[in-house]
Amino acid sequence: MKTKSVYIHIPFCETICSYCDFCKVLYHKKWVDQYLEALEKEIKERYQQEEIDTIYIGGGTPSSLSMNQLTKLFQITNQFHKSDQVEFTIECNVEHITEEKLELFKKAGINRISYGVQTFHTNYLAYLNRHHTKEEVREKIELTKRYIPNINVDLMYAFQNETIEEVKEDIELFLALEIPHISTYSLIIESHTVLGIKEQYIDDGLDSNMYETICHDLKQHDFLHYEVSNFCKPGYQSKHNLTYWNNEHYYGFGMGASGYVNHIRYTNTRSINHYLLGHYDYQKEELTKQVEMENEMILGLRKLEGVSLSNFYQKYQKQVEEVFDIASLIKKGLLEVQNGYIKIPEDKIYLSNEVLVNFIGDV
Ligand SMILES: C[S@@+](CC[C@H](N)C(=O)[O-])C[C@H]1O[C@@H](n2cnc3c(N)ncnc32)[C@H](O)[C@@H]1O
Ligand code: SF4
Known about the structure:
alpha/beta, TIM Barrel, nine-stranded mixed sheet, three-stranded antiparallel sheet, binds S-adenosylmethionine, binds iron/sulfur cluster
């Protein structure tokens, strides 16, 4: 299988959000300059000159870089042989966006922007340690549309004391932005974060109601629900994320990045010192065919369309039912076969984790 996607991790943030357990460090000019040198070196060593269909620059906060640093970053990404239809995304925070940066993005070939908006409620923004205002979000998104209209926004919910009405208000304000993609996230309380010290999860029933509300309201506004937590206007599915859910190969460059190349899943070091010294590796594992087939199901069933039975056979020369006991899951109503795809019925998608565990370690 060819590697046609690239993830690049930029771990710098100007402030640290109270919930975040991603691989990140506070922005420091000298570190960023050194980091870009190390990143260039890693890409030169590992990239095998394939044609690339999707590039995703994530973080951290890539938009926190200065104009000079972003210019250097795009000189690095220029080394990739991009296909004509390449999807090239960068994650941004609205606070960093200026016309100058948008012009630079456009010149560099960026054609998709993902903003971490999270919520419009000022009390929850403070709780999350996020520093934008409602007006800033609206203004920067309108500005972005003039340069790059293919925009995603991240919507978070399930904060302590949050009500369904507040989630509905957020949904309305997100819809009013008139953007083509929304990714949703139920708050995960990570132990090594500020929220992890004392915060508790909200009630499961309330979380499920919030999820149902989001699905219902977005669908009412012609958004397709195409993955457990992702919604888009027709034709705006994230090609890059589909690489992950279709269990295809991709490079992961940068500190803490993960990749999947030549049947090897690997993760880079999360230590900035090691990374700057060129010691990229943290973990590597060559996957057996059995594990690859399990991943095909676990990742693919996150898509509402499910896993193509013919594609599974082409990839593994086995039928899905030869490998997994799907009959019992179909009998329980947790899976169904439709038009050559095996999928989780839409009304059970909230319970997807309960279905997916059945594919771990099955023989
Ligand atoms: C890779 S993060 C970083 C994006 C960018 N730095 C930002 O914060 O806007 C992408 C998204 O993951 C979500 N996220 C991060 N930590 C989370 C957590 N603990 N629980 C739920 N969602 C989380 C947030 O919605 C965030 O925008
Ligand atoms: S959520 Fe984004 S901005 Fe906040 S600390 Fe994590 S990576 Fe940085």
